[in-house]
Amino acid sequence: MRTRPRAGTAVLAAIFLLTSAATAIPTAASAAEVEGVTSVSIQPTEAGRAIRDGDQVQVNVTWAVPDTTESGDTFTLSFPPEIRAFTADFTLVNPEGTAVGRCVVAVPDFVCTMNDYVDTHNSVNGGLRFYARANNVDNLDSVEFETGRGISIPATLPGGGGPTPGSGVPSRPDKYGYLRSDGSSVEWTVSIPAASAADANGEPITFTDTWDSRLTYLPSTLRIGYVPAGSWNDGNNWASVIFLSPGSGANTYSLQDRSASSSVSFSFNAPVSDGRVYVVRYSTSIPAGTPDGASFSNSVFSPTGEEVAEDSVSFLDASGEGAGVGVTPPAEPATPSEPTAPTEPATPAQPTVPIAPATPAVPGTPVVPAADGSKALAATGTDVGVAGQLALALLVLGATGLLLARSRARAPFSTRR
Questions:
Q1: CB–CB of 31/355 below 8 Å?
Q2: Which of 43, 119, 210, 354 is the S-S candidate for 263 at Cβ 3.0 to 4.6 Å?
Q3: pTM passes above 0.90
Q4: How far apart are CA 278 and CA 227, in angstroms?
Q5: Are the beta carbons of 313 and 177 closer than 8 angstroms?
Q6: Closest CA to 115 of 62, 64, 74
């Protein structure tokens, strides 16, 4: 019985093809936080010095990530409140100079993001270092860092974090500078005791502060004032400063901005010798690309050109490195071939209608010649021409029947019952 393919078969085949194609498309993996930090140590930036409150320190970190780490995965280290990191952004590089990842240091923590180096290497590990300021570390022996996955890592404070030696009230001009937490600028403070602010006639003395020409003066950071007598507090006194305004009368100051020549000149009008200490504070920016360890100096000069105070600050640049063992990544599985859509069955060949055997010829009646010379059947006298026509008619009828039978066999199947 002949049948035709149903439309539902084609629909199912299309759904199967779409489902197979969808499952063959890989989905992007999400970045993950991995355990990376293995140890933390703290050292003073001045060798052999015990760490005290307010000191700059170097924080050293060793790290290693699991072999399952993928590009985009991160490892994080949060800082204790006693360590105020200088902001930094640097690349972890291997000995050949190839980037392994990138680290960003901010005040609360640092985050290192691995790149595709980890996709082709195992045992990826290294070290990094950044700089910070010790804060409220008096009488502390150690502090605790915490990884992004909640693991505590202790670090010892060299020198036991003993109390910071007090700095008494200065008896002569003094200068102090330090690298700010932004890691890209230096803050300078000039202290002038009242007795040094005026000459023998009580007239104000003009001092000139000169900085390294590689630095850029930031005028918006300038603050001038004085610390009242009895409020020096071992140098921790900025909250007690009474600020002055530019002018010409008492409790004012005069300023000449010579930043084009890397200096400013200042004086305190109508200086008062009552035990106060005048202070001048401002910041300068460090140029981009400054190498780690570069030193910047700053000096204060009297009107006679005598250097009365000086200090220098070293630039501390964060950095890091990493390396791993190269591996041959596993070959990606072959994409499965799409299934072949089912094809319609071939139409069965029509059966061949057997050809009816030819009707045997009727034996002829002997023909005898007539008296008039014509040919006629011996028994009936029928003329030969009439018999031939009769035989031809029978053959035509037989052929017609065969054609009718064949046309019926080719007629389409009816679905009616």
A1: no
A2: 210
A3: no
A4: 6
A5: yes
A6: 74
> Strand, coil or helix: what is 336?
coil
Q: How many beta carbons lie within 10 A of that of residue 3, not counting itself?
A: 7
- What is the percent of the chain where pLDDT is above 70? 70
**109, 161 contact by CB (below 8 A):** no
Q: What is the mean pLDDT of residues 76-98?
A: 93
Distance CA 379, CA 132 (A): 142
Reading phi first (left if > 0) and then psi (alpha if -120 to 50, else beta), residue 360 is in beta
pLDDT recorded at residue 325: 82
Is the pLDDT score of 362 beyond 60? no
Tokens in use for 35? 């355990």
Q: Are strands 121-134 and 152-156 parallel, antiparallel or unpaired?
A: unpaired
User: If phi over 0 gives left and psi between -120 and 50 gives alpha, with beta otherwise, what is residue 119?
Assistant: alpha
Report the alpha-carbon distance of residue 109 to residue 79 in Å, rounded.
5
- What pairing do the DSSP bridges indicate for beta strands 109-114 and 37-44? unpaired
How would residue 186 be classed by pLDDT, with cut points 50, 70 and 90? very high
- Residues 120-154 have pLDDT tens digits of 999 999 999 999 988 888 888 999 999 999 999 99
- Range 323-341 burial, b when 16+ CB lie within 10 A, else e: bbeeeeeeeeeeeeeeeee
